[in-house]
Amino acid sequence: MTPSLTRNTGLGMAAALTGALAPAEASAHVKWFAPYIVDAAPAPITRTLTDPWFWTGIVLVLAFFIATRLVERTTTGEATLDAMDRATNPLWLRLDDFVRIVVAGFFVAIFSVGGIYLTPDLKTPAEWVSWLQLLIAAGIVSRKTMPLSAAGIIFLWVLALRDYDPFHLLDYLALGVAVAAYLVLESSNREDWRKHRFEVLRWGVAIALMWSSLEKFAYPEWFYPLVAEKPFLTFGIPRDMFIPMAGVAEFTMGFGLLATPLVRRLSALALLVIFITAVYPFGRVDLIGHALIMAIIIVIAVDHTRELHFWSWIRRALIGVPIGLTGALLIFVTAYWGLHAVFYGTDTQTMAEIRAEQGDMATHSYSSEHPHGPQVMATMRDGEEVPQTAPADLGDASVADAYAQSMMGMHEEMMAGLEHEDPDVAFVLGMIPHHQGAIDMARIQLAAGSDPENMQLARHIIAEQQQEIDAMRAWLDERGVEVPDS
């Protein structure tokens, strides 16, 4: 996550870069596992409220939180916190250095990856963005320039909000604002401000987790391709049981980060285990995308602070556990469903309705009003737009003939593009038909193949290759080069 900053500092830099805020062609917002239909209406909340697995998860979490609070009130709880303090004391004494190193390292990492804003999910063809990220990393070295780095982070989030779907970026935004706020508070000479620096990080991660967890209730269908591709993620639990309980776990652990010291530290440790175990199956780029949230979770686990600054009486009371969780659910559910209606209206179809009409791959289908991912570029068939994810129409042709025809078309367009006098342009003009050829082959596989692994590979190729085609077409467009038809 996304998981990933002050508005009034660095005005000079912001003014110098104001021109970059001019409207540009919006890109698709792509979650890390699949492109999806962003304007689909969330499933009715009654679907969740009538799900027994949702309530099973809620009961289990409430029991854990209440039991932990009971232990926390005893000498055993105090001893447990003291032991955690002793074990983490070396890092606690250098915790600000740890945060600054991780934040600076994160921006160096995304500078090295290139072509992204503040997470690998948010791509951009603008090369200057990477150099700004390097400047942000350099600014964190000194407390005097940390507010400028914070302003740079906010500026990049503004660009991301401009280019991508804002509603589905709110979970990312909470984390970005929290990191920016930390940099400002840490650089402040006012101790009454600085004492809240770790707290803003905690709130940022908690809000991001609670907001993003609602996708599992509002759009469980988005997770179906992921579960199908990586079935080990469910530990053998049936899909429709696993997804709502996973949503409960994510929301409640985010809520737990705002609770009393023992609850929040145990919640942080549980989250850290989950994020660490995700590194191997999803790879190093996913680790980069989650680096900030993982670092903040470590900060929460290490934080020795036991003072509660907001609503301390209700957070310490046992009755505060069900009241607080109920209040958080009401606030976030109302905001999520309400803001979606504000952004997209109330007459959109739910994912269940779309899938009933279009089939199981509707999470990847084309939306002309709200483009949403690398698989949305359409071809024309009989004058109508057809999503690239659709299997190829082989007609009476054999599979071999279909493959041969796709390769012949690719070869002719590649050679024509490579004749351009500018070697950079020639490379891009040659690569676009090369990638399109791979997409055409993948669509033939979807039409004629049957092996589940190959079918999944074909969908992956379509997604990745189309995303790169989009980036190359945007590069040509920026340079005034005629963009070839898809």
Automatic annotation (TrEMBL):
Transmembrane region(s): 52-71, 98-119, 131-160, 167-185, 241-259, 266-282, 288-305, 317-339
A Pfam family matched in the record: DUF305
InterPro entries for this protein: DUF305_CopM-like, Ferritin-like
Membrane found in the keyword field: yes
Domain DUF305: 387-476
Coiled-coil residue windows: none
Domain of life: Bacteria
Record's keyword terms, sorted: Membrane, Transmembrane, Transmembrane helix
Classification via PANTHER family: SLL0788 PROTEIN (PTHR36933:SF1)
Name of the molecule in the record: DUF305 domain-containing protein
